[in-house]
Amino acid sequence: MTAVRTEIRTRRRTALGRSPVLVALSIAALFMVLPFLIVAVNAVKSPAEYSQHGPLSLPNGLYLDGLKDFWQRVDYGQKLLNSVLISGSVAVLAAVLSVLNAYAIGIGRIKGRTWVLAFFVLANVLPQEALVYPLYYLSKQAGLYDTRLSVIIVFTVIQAAFGTYLLSSVLGQFPREIIEAARIDGANKWQVLWRIVVPVSRPTIGVLLVFFFIWTWNEFLLPLVMLISNDNQTVSVALGVLQGQRLMDATMTNAAALLGVLPAIVFFLVFQRTLTRGIAVGAVK
Amino acid sequence: MTITVERGARAVGKRPHPGPRRPRSQNSYALFLLPGVLAFLAVIIVPFLMNTGVSFTEWSGIGSPKWTGLDNYRRLLDDSEFWASFRHSLFMVVAMAAVPTMIGLVLAAALFDYIGKHFGSKVAAVLRACFYLPQVLPIAVAGIVWSWILAPDDGSLNALLKAVGLGSWQQDWLGDPDVALYSVMGVMVWVQLGFPLVVFMAGLQRVDPQLYEAAELDGAGWWRRFRHITLPQIRPEIYVVLTWCTVAALKVFGAVYVLTKGGPGGATDVPSYFSFTTFFEKTQAGYGAAISTVLTVIILLLAMVGLKLQTRAEDAEEGARA
Question: What transmembrane ranges does the database entry give (chain B) (predicted)?
Answer without folding.
Answer: 29-50, 90-114, 126-149, 179-202, 238-259, 285-307
